[in-house]
Design brief:
Shape: globular
Strand content: 25-35%
Radius of gyration: 20 Å
Largest sheet: 9 strands, mixed
Number of helices: 14
């Protein structure tokens, strides 16, 4: 069917590559490219021998010319960006120059400020349209599946959706006093930023971790969760009809929060460079270097994740509630692909989004968020490739 260039070789990329190989009718050929070629070669060695032909390359994703040269050499039908969010725009530039479809899992953020918004990528809309190529933004889980869930709810369950609560619960235990389940730099920036939600078309800002709720998650149990800012709120508020309020909550254990507070208090989570023995270092980047690599948590992590959306809206003039969610087991993920569930829940949807473009099921030149496409083929693929969804018409609501 087609060729995919996958940029990145971390935990999420590893899952995505495993899944591309499972879906070899669509992914006939992939090239894994990263700054560290040895990581790409290790993934190739693990997965070679199936139907999907695998090659590797070294590339610096900050360098547009290097990216263009690689794209011209490999000639992919789609580029799957699983590098860092700081590199979204250089990869989009390279896709534009070579007229190749683009997929990512998280929106662009500048290095110097923890700011998650879509304006930088949405600014590419006309250029992608004119080039006749599609950029699919946020094809992970949240953003990603949460957007597909919203589109599915809108299509099949509601005439209008007034309230969405996105709940992200990770009840996995890795046994370390403090570690992050995905890139520590991105994770800590996200958590230590101010919270916010959208109500009546306006952003309402909260202090970090100011709003806490306890929720009883199906198959997991009661967990503390906190309101965070999250990028998909911005696009869902525009794309889902009838929205009055959208919030995003994520669970955190007390040990994680206590450690984070200490690290914040001593300046270790800062993204401002400091002088250290004649070198400029960013404290958060140094902290990342001493924390456990998220990719190493797989064999140690036990427990489940539960991520989903609670919708309140109207159907035929009556108020209605609906909850769509996925439960994923860390140990099952590790058995299947050698990664924990946080990488799994992002890597599987990245493959599915790219497959939607490769098969032509989704074809809309321009820059689009995932909820702008027909959700049905994506929802089918979630069931097929390891992220089955569940639904409830009488969920507990979040006050």
């Amino acid at each position: 069917m087609g060729k995919a260039l996958i940029i990145g070789a971390g935990g999420v990329a590893s899952v995505c590559i495993h899944k591309c190989c499972q879906n070899s009718d669509v992914f006939e050929e992939i090239c894994i490219a990263s700054r560290t070629k040895s990581k790409c070669d290790a993934l190739k060695a693990k997965l070679d021998g199936g139907k999907t032909k695998i090659s590797t390359a070294q590339v610096n994703a900050d360098n547009v010319d290097e990216l263009i040269a690689l794209i011209n050499q490999f000639k992919p039908d789609v580029v799957i960006n699983l590098a860092l969010p700081y590199q979204d725009l250089t990869i989009m530039d390279a896709c534009l120059a070579t007229k190749v479809n683009y997929v990512d899992t998280a929106n662009y953020e500048p290095l110097d400020t923890a700011k998650f918004e879509y304006k930088w990528q949405w600014a590419y809309r006309e250029r992608f349209e004119q080039a006749g190529i599609t950029a699919l933004l946020g094809s992970g889980f949240d953003p990603g599946v949460t957007g597909v869930f919203s589109a599915y709810a809108m299509k099949h369950e509601f005439d209008e959706i007034n309230y969405i609560d996105i709940l992200d619960c990770n009840a996995g235990d890795h046994g370390y006093p403090f570690a992050t389940n995905f890139n520590p730099e991105i994770n800590i920036r996200e958590v230590s930023a101010k919270g916010s939600y959208i109500e009546d078309g306006k952003w309402i800002e909260t202090e970090p971790m100011e709003i806490k709720r306890v929720y009883n998650f199906p198959e997991v149990g009661e967990k503390d969760m906190y309101l965070l800012h999250h990028e998909e709120l911005e696009s869902l508020a525009l794309n889902i009809k009838g929205i009055k309020r959208i919030r995003f909550f994520m669970t955190f254990g007390q040990s994680y929060l206590t450690h984070l507070k200490c690290l914040e208090n001593v300046g270790m989570t800062s993204i401002e460079p400091i002088d250290f023995e004649g070198h400029k270092i960013v404290p958060l980047q140094f902290l990342k270097a001493v924390l456990p690599d998220p990719a190493s948590l797989g064999p140690r992590t036990k427990g489940k994740t539960n991520i989903g959306c609670i919708f309140i809206g109207k159907k035929d003039g009556k108020e209605k509630t609906y909850y769509l969610y996925n439960v994923c087991d860390h140990e099952e993920c590790y058995k299947e692909v050698g990664s924990q569930a946080v990488s799994y829940t992002t890597g599987v949807p990245a493959m599915i989004g790219a497959a939607m473009l490769l098969t032509g099921k989704w074809n809309k030149p321009g820059v689009h968020n995932i909820e702008e496409f027909d959700p049905d083929p994506f929802m089918d693929a979630l069931n097929q490739f390891g992220l089955p969804w569940k639904e409830s018409y009488h969920p507990d609501l979040v006050d």
